[in-house]
Amino acid sequence: MLDAHRAAFAARLDALPSAVVHAAPAPGAWSLAQLAEHFVRIDAGLTLTGPPASAIVRATSGARRRALAGVLSLPLRIPAPPSAAGVMPSADPRWPEVRDRWDDVRAEWRSTPAEGAVAYRHPLAGPFLFDDALAFLLAHHRHHDAQVERTLAALGGGPALRSEAKKTRGTQVTAA
Fold first, then answer.
1. For residues 155 and 20, is the Cβ–Cβ distance under 8 A?
2. What global pTM score does this model have?
3. Contact 162/94 with Cβ under 8 angstroms?
4. pLDDT in tens, 149-175
5. Under a CB-based contact definition with an 8 Å cutoff, are residues 23 and 157 in contact?
6. Residues 6+ apart with CB under 8 A from 139
7. H or E stretch at 58
8. Taking a C-beta distance cutoff of 8 angstroms, is the pair 5, 141 a contact?
9. CA 71 – CA 100 distance, rounded (Å)
10. If I label 117, which of 6, 52, 109, 156 is the partner at 20 to 30 A Cα–Cα?
11. Which fold has domain 2-168?
């Protein structure tokens, strides 16, 4: 499901004029290319070879992931904690290069994850096992769907620009 969501988002950016993909809708707001780079940086945190998870991590990973997904499902702007500075996008990423980096990150996920290992460390929710990490990443991507819609609308995204957005809204996403 996650790959389908990523592919749909990438296809949307590929279908838009470069000027739209790289334009910020307002001062201080992210362009769609910056949002994509943010996704790449978040997704790059997933590892298939993490350390063994403790019993408490194994027992609570799902509950913590569900709580975080619940927060992400709210229509709120949720600022990243200061400890997450490394996932913020650069000032002017170029979409073709970001897409290539994203493809490289996703290619690393094609192997089998270590059973019972920590696959992702969220700065507030803590460590997640692999399936919970994928579910968090999907919830995080979906959390930004409304931002994409607002960005397209702010950039004069009339029917031609928003038609691509409507095609992928609510896309179900799988791990592979």
1. yes
2. 0.86
3. no
4. 999 999 986 444 445 445 544 443 333
5. no
6. 68, 69, 72, 73
7. helix 55-72
8. yes
9. 30
10. 6
11. Four Helix Bundle (Hemerythrin (Met), subunit A) (1.20.120)
